[in-house]
Each structure stands twice: as structure tokens, then as C-alpha cells.
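U., I forgot to send this yesterday:
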Amino acid sequence: MRIRELVIMKQHFNAAISKYDSIGIITHKTPDGDGLGASLAMQELLACRSKKADVILEEPIPVVYDFLDGERRTIVFSENLRYDLLIILDCHEKERVGRCEPLIPFSQKVISFDHHILGEMIPDSETYIDTDTVSVGAILFKMFENEIDALPPESAQYLAKAVYTSILNDTDNFLNTNVDAETFAICSKLMKYDIQPGMITEMFLLSKPANEMRFVGEVLSSIQTYDNDTVLFMNSTLDMLQRNGLDLKANNKLTRWVKGTKNMKVIVSFQEVSKNRYRLSLRSNYVDVNKIATKYGGGGHKKASGCEIKGSLDTVKQAILEDIREQL
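Result:
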């Protein structure tokens, strides 16, 4: 599904870049490697056009993005920020941008690039959605490949690293079923910019400190299975995080540790974010988890989605189990 063809969207984008000098870049709340990788790639592309753009986040960027110089290149949202042009990446719904949502009504122009299932678009925004492309970083590469080829080698390499990170994130290191021929074709093209995939994978996915690995062990010990081991639930608590000296960012990508579990059809990670409030990550190749997440105000992809739900852990688990069973 595509909302606006890429060539038309590029024309609108270039016109907006020419018109506005005050530019902000945001992504969805609790950003991941696609939203952040795409945002940093967009910022570098605009810098090469002599356009300064801020990447605005709800919280300081996790240290795992140090290899992309993430801390220096991003700022934290504050109420006084205003931008004439707002670029939203890996998201097209204002409800999903979290604390950065107040930036939308103050902007004169909003442009969104996304690959999630169509939801409620921001009124009057220029929106491009392509659910067939593996990541938003990949969408940007397809749109600006010729321009990237003409950039100074250092900038082109940085952009390629950021785009590759977005693909690593949304394919879970090429394990997900969204990997297709185009995915590998784009990665092959990224290699000409002298990136080192093994090093990027190690820095982004594998470089975990001992306390984080202990936390992962605690989460794995919480595993419960249902319906002849076809449904797997696991959960993290604030106490687990505190014991290991970690914050909520450590909850990212917990489901990757149980991917490939024998007979498993649905995986759900329940992450306590405050008292009686849980953030859910749902993964499945058998049921439409986006349908479940949307029911609770979340969203994402058919095979990978997320949402937040209020209630006790037992109550939330039971509700989600019933939703899963309706489809299974």
C-alpha cells in the first residue's frame, strides 16, 4: 500500500526544504533503531544541503547509538521548541509521537514517511506510507540514492550506517519474514559506502553489559506458555530494572531472545512502565497482532505491534490471551 508515489512525495519534500529553514525531525514515542536511524540519516542529508535540522526526542538517546554519534546529534523535547517544517519518520499519527506532539500544531508544514499500516493521518500533512518497504530508513535510501552517491564519502558512509541500522532493527538482524529481495538489494548497495555490517551489528544488537544480560535472564525466567506451548508470555518489572541498575530502555527488543522457540505462534512481552501500566510488544507470524494492539490504542505491523494497557498484570495477560485465542 502506498499513499502518494515516491517521486511525487520527493517533489513535495524538496519544495518544503527549499521554502523553510526552521526544521525539526521527530519519530514515534519509545523510538527504535528504524525511527532513530532514519532521523539521523535525514538530518545528515539535510546538513549536506546546508540545512540545519534538529532531531527531537522525548528522552536522551540510548548509549547504544553512540556509534552514530547519537547524543551530539539529538536534543530532548522542551515546550519552547518551534519549527516551521516538521518531518515525522516511522510514524504518521499524532497520538504515536508522544511528548513531541505539541510541535505539530505550531508547524507550518508537516511531512511524514512511514511503513506502518495506515491509521489516522495528521490533517493537512504530506504523508508517504509504503508498507512493503522493510524500514523507513530504506524508504529514504530509495528516495535519495542518487543524492547520497554524490555526497562526500564521510557523509555518505554515515547515512549508509544509519540506514543499515534501520534495516537491522526492523528485520531483527534479517530473521523476520519481512526480509525480501529488495531488502538484500538495498543492503548490497549500502556496501559501496564502505560500511562494516558485522561491526554495526555488534554495536547495535550485541554489545550488552553484564547487568543487562542478568536482567534479560530474569525476564526469560518469567516465561509462561499457553495452548500447548503456542503462546508465550514473559514480563519485566520495575523491580527487575532497579535491581540491575537499568531504566526502561533496557526493555527494548526483549522478544528477540525467544524468537524461534519451538511450536511458538505468538510472543508477547509485558513491560511494567509504572504501577498498573504495561507496555506490550506483540510478535506473530500467525495472527494479526496489529489488530490486537489497535484495540488498545497502539499499532504497528500485522506481525509486530505494540501498545500500552492499564491494569494488573494478571488482568492484562488474560485480556490479551483472549484476543489471541479469538484469532488462533
